[in-house]
Specification:
heterodimer; A: alpha+beta; five-stranded antiparallel sheet; 23% helix; B: mainly beta; Porin; eight-stranded antiparallel β-barrel; two-stranded antiparallel sheet; 3 helices; 12 strands
């Protein structure tokens, strides 16, 4: 390949810095940007959270993979020493790996996932600028078999996906290492966000840091015992077993049998939940409770019976004070409003303050 | 009227700013006295109720918080006004007291017009609590007989002053409790107090260390304090006010600076 314009090293350096700055400005607000000397890759993962995607459970799997991600990439100033390069979306997982042959196949079918590789478009020769900008792409369309296997095959798996720019292996004629392995371990993928763009044929990639997608299709096991049902004011507090491992994130507690309607409530954590009159329970009515564990992915375990309890009407100290005919009514008692005693108090405070002020002034004189 | 309680710390600050510049018998000039104090405290809430025999432990405070004392912390500063015939000071204290007890059901000794009605058996909630928080503010004048403290390290002390106790009852959810639906159980109550006590001059036992403390931190003298305090906090005898006073021993550490 030839070029009519061949920038000097100084010109190339200036162009590179300008392009990198422009890319940074353009990427402001994106979930993540990897910026090389002349390459910008942006990847907005599902949920917009680059580092900690929530695990995906059975019920949410299909919907989660239908959520949209954004892929955009720019090669601003191709190095004349480089070969043709293309933009790839790569998935690594327990069953999908983007191998060299997969990569070659992917380059023949843009937009179609071949095992772990999808060529998303955009080709850059060394003297050209290439750009691809895919907004609102459903994640599942970039997975093999349209993501169907991910939600139905097996119990739990982790995928890593990332966006990379790679040379066309059919063009540069040299073998290169597995792109996924390079993306996971090499210096070109850095936590700080700057990829290695000083690419050579032997290191032919720039990649975003991988995003981990955890799909958990295995519901948790609900512990069978050691629940406590505590009677409190207008509510019962249910304490969950303390020895339950890390698998359980929260519980769904359901009640039935009382005067009021049956219902369910999900705790915010795995320690306890309070259920009371605000949730529909009726005071002094006995309810039977069941609990079902929920894992981080939202999978619901089987329900177990945890006992019965009833909501009580307890008094706090103010209510008790009043029921004992205590006369206090609260409020910051104003000096004249509380009769003679209050008036004396106010006068004494005023006199004390005036006395102290006078003494202080005289001391300073 | 909310300005009135603010006069208490203000009194202390005034003293701090303009205290007399008299020289002490040893070390640097003495301007005031900083004290950290602790008192076993039990507000006298239950004395307001005429509880018949057999129901003495059914007053609100005892029922919720038991019959023992809990700790009251006090931090105070007084500026020296006169140091010729002993030390006369004025200043203020601020304190903190919190106690919590299980919510209760059953009212076995409810007072009625003709006596005491019996009711349900006492029950406690398993974990819900109701709290009482009191923040005492005290403005006081103190006299310390410091004339002979260099030879006898015991300093007799008299104090008297005005009190304003801010208080708050908490419901089982941690919010402010209510006497009635439109009547929050929080407020402030006026009172007065006096103390009689002895302050032990610790400098007496290690003058070298005391001199270092003075030179390095400006602390002229250090005292270990024990006082008997009687506080009557009921809006000066109002029958409509909660009673928060107590008679107790107060222990502390004082720094004359």
């Amino acid at each position: 390949m030839t070029s009519k314009f061949s920038p000097s090293p100084v010109q190339r350096s200036r162009l590179t810095r300008a392009a990198a700055t422009l890319a940074l400005l353009l990427s402001a607000g994106a979930a993540r940007a990897e910026v090389g000397d002349n390459i910008t890759l942006e990847l907005d993962p599902v949920d917009g959270s680059y580092d900690d995607l929530d695990p995906i459970g059975i019920d949410a799997c299909v919907d989660a993979l239908s959520k949209k991600i954004t892929l955009s990439a720019i090669i601003a100033d191709q190095d004349p020493n480089q070969d043709t390069r293309k933009f790839l979306f790569v998935v690594q997982g327990s069953e999908q790996d983007c191998s060299l042959s997969d990569l070659e196949a992917a380059f023949n079918t843009p937009g179609t996932a071949v095992n772990g590789c999808t060529w998303i478009g955009g080709t850059s020769d060394y003297d050209k600028t290439a750009e691809v900008n895919l907004k609102e792409v459903a994640l599942r369309t970039l997975l093999p078999n349209n993501g169907v296997d991910a939600c139905t095959n097996g119990e739990q798996r982790n995928y890593q996906y990332y966006l990379m720019v790679a040379p066309d292996p059919t063009k540069h004629g040299k073998g290169w290492t597995h792109p996924g392995a390079k993306a996971s371990t090499d210096g070109g993928v850095e936590d700080g966000g700057t990829g290695d763009a000083t690419t050579t044929v032997d290191e032919p990639y720039v990649s975003t840091r991988p995003v981990t997608l955890e799909i958990d299709l295995s519901p948790p096991t609900t512990p069978a015992e050691t629940y406590q049902i505590l009677a409190n004011d207008q509510a019962v507090q249910i304490e969950f077993p303390s020895d339950q491992g890390n698998e359980i994130a929260k519980y769904q507690v359901c009640w039935s049998g009382g005067s009021g309607p049956s219902g369910c409530k999900t705790s915010s954590g795995a320690q306890s939940v309070s259920i009371g009159t605000a949730d529909g329970l009726v005071i002094e009515s006995a309810y039977a409770f069941t609990a079902a564990a929920i894992d981080d992915a939202g999978n619901l375990g089987g329900a177990v019976s945890i006992g019965s309890g009833s909501v009580r009407d307890f008094l706090d100290v103010a209510q008790y004070y009043r029921q004992m005919h205590g006369p206090e009514t609260g409020g910051c008692h104003s000096v004249p409003g509380r009769g003679f005693g209050g008036l004396i108090g106010g006068l004494l405070v005023a006199l004390t303050a005036a006395f102290v002020r006078r003494r202080s002034k005289s001391s300073c004189a | 009227m909310r300005l009135i309680p603010a006069l208490f710390p203000a009194a202390g600050l005034l003293c701090l700013a303009g205290a007399a510049q008299a020289e002490g018998t040893l070390g640097t000039a003495r301007h005031g006295n900083l004290e950290i104090r602790y008192a076993p405290y039990r507000p006298d809430i239950d004395s307001q109720f005429s509880l018949p025999k057999g129901c003495e432990d059914q007053g609100p405070y005892t029922r919720f918080y038991g019959s023992g004392d809990d700790g009251l912390l006090l931090l105070g500063y007084e500026g020296h006004l006169m140091q010729k015939y002993g030390t006369l000071s004025a200043g203020g204290d601020i304190g903190f007291f919190r106690v919590a007890g299980k919510a209760q059901a059953g009212l076995p000794c409810r007072p009625t017009g003709s006596g005491v009605a019996t009711g349900a058996a006492v029950e406690e909630a398993d974990s819900d609590e109701s709290s009482l928080i009191i923040v005492p503010l005290q403005a006081q004048v103190s006299y310390r007989l410091t004339i002979w403290e260099d030879s006898i390290p015991l300093v007799p002390v008299l104090r008297a002053g005005l009190d304003y106790y801010m208080w708050r009852m908490g419901d089982t959810g941690g919010d402010v409790a209510k006497f009635e639906p439109d009547q929050e159980a929080s407020g402030g109550t006026w009172g007065w107090h006096y103390t009689v006590g002895l302050h032990l001059l610790l400098d007496f036992f290690s003058e070298a260390m005391a001199a270092d403390f003075d030179r390095d931190a400006g602390v002229n003298s250090t005292y270990l304090t024990v006082e008997y305090m009687h506080a009557q906090v009921d809006d000066f005898g109002s029958k409509k006010s909660i009673r928060l006073g107590d008679s107790t021993l107060v222990f502390g550490l004082g720094f004359d600076m």
